[in-house]
Design goal:
This protein is 80% helix and 0% strand. The chain has 188 residues and is an all-alpha fold. Helix 1 crosses helix 4, helix 4 packs parallel to helix 6 and helix 5 crosses helix 7. The mean pLDDT is 87.
């Protein structure tokens, strides 16, 4: 048992060192110019340690960002009243702004967007499961809304946050309501 705990601790340390090294390199280099060799050298671990934990640098970034993004969505789903969910998501995006800027500048935004869309899809499917949409409508509506919400928040955050947070919330609520109504009225 002690050997297993020790092995797990070493694995966790390796993951932490590798993540820290990659995030440090991303401050000055684009993701597509960083090599595994550079990351392991900076982390002070072997290539084997990298490949025991990750297949690619994208996998490393995904493993770092996925839990934080999922935890925030889970928090919003379980603990935030329905009438405050958009505000909570707005706060989350404000907190995510520096990461989003770095991701956009350094070429790993697709990872953040994929994680966001996956969680947003789960969020909508969970909150809308007893709603008026058919299963097919819900499937495509969630994809549509997830992509749209991400695009609006991205534009707002990277564009300098010129509009108020309230204006963005109202826009998202209007789009969500309008698309929902269009689908349900079309079914009548």
């Amino acid at each position: 048992m002690a050997a297993t705990n020790h092995a797990q601790a070493i694995k966790k340390d390796s993951q932490t060192y590798l993540t820290t090294a990659l995030l440090q390199l991303l401050k000055t280099h684009d993701l597509d110019t960083i090599t595994v060799t550079q990351v392991v050298k900076r982390a002070g671990v072997s290539r084997m340690a990298f490949y025991r934990n990750f297949a690619t640098l994208d996998d490393l970034l995904t493993s770092y960002f996925a839990p934080a993004i999922a935890a925030r969505f889970q928090d919003v789903l379980q603990h935030v009243p329905a009438n405050q969910k958009l505000l909570a998501m707005g706060q989350f995006f404000s907190e995510l702004a520096p990461t989003l800027r770095l991701a956009e500048q350094r070429g790993f935004e697709s990872i953040i967007q994929r994680l966001f869309n996956d969680n947003m899809t789960t969020y909508y499917q969970t909150t809308m499961e007893n709603g008026p949409l058919t299963a097919v409508q819900l499937k495509y509506w969630t994809k549509f809304m997830s992509a749209g919400v991400y695009a609006i928040w991205r534009e707002w955050l990277l564009g300098g946050q010129l509009e108020s947070l309230t204006a963005i919330h109202e826009l998202l609520a209007t789009l969500q309501t309008a698309t929902m109504q269009a689908l349900t009225q079309g079914a009548d």
